[in-house]
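Quick log. Single chain, no ligands specified.
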Amino acid sequence: MQNTSKNINPPLFAYWLGFQPEIISYERKKRAFGKSRWTFRRKVKLFLDSLLGFSVVPIRMISLIGVLVSLASFAYGVWIIISALRGKTIVQGFATIVTITSLLFGLVIIMLGIIGEYVWRIFDEINKRPESVIEEIYD
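-> predicted structure:
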């Protein structure tokens, strides 16, 4: 099987396919010459590839944050309206602007989450990962 993805974590890909890896114990010897090319930047890239390449959770978290921001701003808006009706507003217009701005930002975040869901589904369809792996064929 040849994997055509550029941004992939091979050990994680093996787990994703259902393989159970074996652990081989060994004693690591100190590097005699040279310097490791496994830089912090490469480690961060591997982490992001692992997180973003196999999981829809970040996109769903963005949507959840958008919903929470929208709900909080809506509740704050209701509280501001009640305060205004009771005559307890301190600065005229500030609360309205803050409420509308946070509500709109929450809606924008929700929309980005929905667009992200569509992009994730497109990615999932075209990434050419096998849906199943046959370990052995019996004749």
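The chain is about 60% helix and 0% strand.
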